[in-house]
Amino acid sequence: MTTGFFDGIAPATFEGVDSKDPLAFRHYDPNATVMGKRLEDHLRFAVAYWHSFAWEGGDPFGGPTFQRPWHPQDDMGRAKMKADVAFEMFDILGAPFFCWHDADLRPEQGSYAANLATLEEITDYLGEKMQASRTKLLWGTANMFSDRRWMAGASTNPDPDVFAYAAATVKGCMDATHKLGGQNYVLWGGREGYETLLNTDLGRELDHMGRFLSMVVDYKHKIGFQGQILVEPKPQEPSKHQYDFDAATCIGFLRKYGLEDEVKLNLEQGHAILAGHSFEHEIAVAAAEGMLGSIDMNRNDYQSGWDTDQFPNTVPEVALAYYQILKSGGFTTGGTNFDAKLRRQSLDPQDLIAAHVGGMDVCARGLMAAAAMIEDGGLEKALSARYAAWEDAAAQAMLTSDLATIQTRVIDQGVNPQPRSGRQEILEAYVNRFV
């Protein structure tokens, strides 16, 4: 028995590039083999529970526009209806994974004990749904930013009672993630930052945040959770100065508190843009340090300057992101989560399916282009040629030498380097051959 929300919408199938059906895949054939691996296993798609089912379509200037049968989300009956609809959509899409925040799953009860009880109840219900579905849990996380109790942060809050509430909340969410077989657990700051230094002890807050994350890692091992702990960089939203600004900032933070071997990064395209980076930059930084975990694949409106969480629709951007992912060896426990939401005017159930189908197609097309570039080897050849002089023994010796010795070499050998072309336009044209 179904909820009827998606009545008339058949499971999405691969129809090929000539298809004109917005609810059919043109590029995403989950069983197609790319670089010796199924496309589904490369991409590991996950549906975001919050934007797809919990978001009601409001914005800073207007109230909700979506009128779903499970809205308002204020009792367990509606929470279970939402889960029913969610799994119907997972089945339509053939989605291998989904992700959630605790507040997406259960209604806010006003107290920790009541919230925990409803979280445990809905976790059991989700477990039953998962037994009848192929969809697994990619990761769970705690919403520690929406309720007013979090207005000055969670682990960085000046009130120790809020720190305690946050610790208890994360424990409950880790227990739920573990029980559902989640492959990762994510922490992202939301409000782990500050508005003004006039009322902020920055050093204390960073130490508290580091200790909090250490507790999370300790608890992971205590309960035998085999998944990966991930943190998600997020700049200036909603706090003015976020402590987890970008990949490099988070890596430095993890090293400072001795967590670099325990925690990896969940990177979002929209957050990369807000931090002034490209998505492939953030991925490359994490991969270079062995800290690439998972990704949220969305995009921003480049005119708005805000995290608009739109579905991906630009193959060249996506291809360059997956190029870095494939170069690093691809996902292990991570995957491609659509942290994206419909526009407020996209009201129909069909819009929800079409948005995901379109996003999955763009990602598939981008990954195939990335794989083709890797197999062709043109970018790697150009990279090797640019750095070829560093293979010389004398060049390598400089890296273990000292300034005075290098100065003598420059004088004695009359070193007078001339600039060489970076060939950027040629390489950009090369990429365009594949996308």
TrEMBL record:
Cofactor(s) required, per the database record: Mg(2+)
Reaction catalyzed: alpha-D-xylose = alpha-D-xylulofuranose
Cofactor note: Binds 2 magnesium ions per subunit.
InterPro entries (alphabetical): Xyl_isomerase-like_sf, Xylose_isom_bac, Xylose_isomerase
Active-site annotation: 101, 104
UniProt-listed Enzyme Commission number(s): 5.3.1.5
Enzyme class per UniProt: isomerase
Binding site for Mg(2+) 2: 268, 271, 307, 309
Keywords: Carbohydrate metabolism, Cytoplasm, Isomerase, Magnesium, Metal-binding, Xylose metabolism
Binding locations of Mg(2+) 1: 232, 268, 296, 339
Principal place of residence: cytoplasm
Subcellular location: Cytoplasm
MF (Gene Ontology): isomerase activity
Transmembrane segments: none
NCBIfam families named among the record's database cross-references: PRK05474.1 (NF003998), xylose_isom_A (TIGR02630)
Subunit structure as annotated in this protein's UniProt entry: Homotetramer.
Family: Belongs to the xylose isomerase family.
Protein name: Xylose isomerase
